[in-house]
Every structure is written in C-alpha cells, then in structure tokens.
C-alpha cells in the first residue's frame, strides 16, 4: 500500500479504487494499529469529536471500504469483519505499507534496506489528511527517512561516493538546514572531484540559512 506522497492501494497487483479518502484512512489505520473499536476509529479520524454526524460518516466509509475490497475477484471472504465490538482487516489479507520501510531499515542496518526505504519515499505520509494521528505519523516517517538517508550516506561515503551523494541529497531535500546532511553532500561532491558543484551547494546552503534563520554556517567549505 502506498501512503507516501499519495494513497494508492493495490490488491493482487490490481489498483483498487476507494470511493472516499476516509475509507482509505480507515484502511491505513487498521493496517498500522490492528483491531480497533468504532470509538477508537472515530476518535482518531475526527480528532476526538463526539458529533453524531461523524459516527454516521464513519459507518458509511467503513461500509464502502468493505465493499471496495470485497469487489476484487480474489476476495471471497469478508475483508473487514466487525466482531466482538472491533473492526479489523481479515487475516487473509497481507498488507505491505511503504511508511514502515524506513524504521525497518534502521533496525536491520542493511544498506539495501536503507536504499529501498529512500526509494519508496515519494512524499509526506497521507498528505491530503490532517488528523492529529496522521500528522504525528507523518513526522515520525519523515524523521525515520532522514535517519535512513544519513545512515546510508555514512555507510557509502568511502566505498561508493555516488551512492553517498544520492543519499545525502535525499537527506538534504527532507531537511535542508540539517548540517550533517549538508556536510555529507559536500564531502560526496568533493570525493567525486565535483569541486564547483560543492561550492554551489555550500553557497546555496549558506544563503538559505541566512534567509530562514538569519545565521551563518558553522563550518567553511574547506573544513568539510
């Protein structure tokens, strides 16, 4: 399931069209948090609102999600059972989420996993949704992805400067004022003999630092 940059759900290799964003949000919530009561879901999706209309909106969104999943030819079971007061995704559904790749990669420490997580990051988590739980997860995913980029850059800086340049570039794109990302980016440029590019990157970083926080870099290009 693609949750970074936009929500896109595929089932059996076939893209699934969800009738409304709330249906997708329910799907992502359950995939991340597991079985949940109606109250937990409404509280998460509508930031604790107790308004009756939100309960009605939830019921419609949940029913439409179930119908959308059940319409797939391979689904001959109830994909969203409601049992003993909780909603959950069927155990027969295997859900893969791109938003968990960076944290998994950081735990494994495998450069291939780190690279896969960076390649999967197509933008913020569920950018069209602004519920509190979405914003919190968005910040976590961005932080994990930044850490994965820095870890890959550090691993590659001596053995593969081109990969280091790509990784530190991803880190700098996520957090333009991050000094570690900028230092790594400059080191990679210089390791590749790209001294003019390093000078341009340093000048761009210094100018952005002045414009946004009124500060100067804590290091010179010669100190990288």
From TrEMBL:
Domain Bacterial transcriptional activator: 97-222
Keyword Transferase: no
Gene3D superfamilies, A to Z: Tetratricopeptide repeat domain, Winged helix-like DNA-binding domain superfamily/Winged helix DNA-binding domain
Domain of life: Bacteria
UniProt entry keywords in alphabetical sequence: Transcription, Transcription regulation
InterPro entries (alphabetical): AfsR-DnrI-RedD_regulator (IPR051677), BTAD (IPR005158), TPR-like_helical_dom_sf (IPR011990), WH-like_DNA-bd_sf (IPR036388)
Keyword Repeat: no
Pfam families: BTAD (PF03704)
Descriptive protein name: BTAD domain-containing putative transcriptional regulator
